[in-house]
Amino acid sequence: MARAREGDPGKLWITADRQTGGRGRRGRSWVSEPGNLYASLLLIDPAPLPALASLPLAVAVAVHEAVRRAMKPGGEALEIKWPNDLLIGRKKTSGILLEGEKLADGRYALVIGIGVNIAFKPEGTPYPATCLADHGIHISPAELFAYLFESMASMLAIWDQGAGIAAVVSRWREHACGIGERITVNLPDRSLAGVFAGIGADGVLMLDTGAGGTIPVAAGDVFFG
């Protein structure tokens, strides 16, 4: 974000071998060891603000495509947990965080942070974690980033500032984890339980609470079972 404040025009990728001040959802912090992929993409004015709600889905599909290219055919399923975590064997192998800021010059800066567990996985996390190496997938961070660079450019073009959301949602659904299963969605102030009925045309999670209908959930942490 500092580069954006300094006037960077965007479409800037930054990668790191190691992170000592990583930050996740709700301000969670972590130290990231070498051997995994840590990448951030800076976008400037990527779309009108209402359209940005669907961008996490496009990013998830792009990361899914990159990781899938590294996997052997016939391996364990690579799935997306709403909205943008990648799972192998129901364990988290990738996380994505989007953060935006209105700049002093009137532009809107958005940073897409992506982490993929390649050689190492964190311990003691709220959701069980895994890494590619645990599944016999051996690839360097540089090689995986090359795949990600290509897939992200492709998916951002399909997303097209939100105009291509229907295509993005369709691709996301192909790899969705847990549709039709019971889930709990943890919100900042409460938890909701029900059946994961899918995602709406705008990408929000649809939760069947058994009370005669479904309710939309725009943000939250999903747990199965």
UniProtKB/TrEMBL annotation:
A single GO cellular-component term on record: cytoplasm
Pfam families in the cross-refs: BPL_C (PF02237), BPL_LplA_LipB (PF03099)
Chemical reaction(s) catalysed: biotin + L-lysyl-[protein] + ATP = N(6)-biotinyl-L-lysyl-[protein] + AMP + diphosphate + H(+)
Region (Disordered): 1-29
Single Gene Ontology MF annotation: ATP binding
InterPro entries: aa-tRNA-synth_II/BPL/LPL, Biotin_CoA_COase_ligase, BPL_C, BPL_LPL_catalytic, Transcriptional_repressor_C
Class of enzymatic activity (EC top level): ligase
Gene3D superfamilies membership: 2.30.30.100, Bira Bifunctional Protein, Domain 2
Keywords: ATP-binding, Biotin, Ligase, Nucleotide-binding
All residue ranges annotated as the BPL/LPL catalytic domain in the record: 1-160
Stored PROSITE patterns: BPL_LPL_CATALYTIC
The organism's place on the tree of life at top rank: Bacteria
UniProt-listed NCBIfam families: birA_ligase
Protein name (record): biotin--[biotin carboxyl-carrier protein] ligase
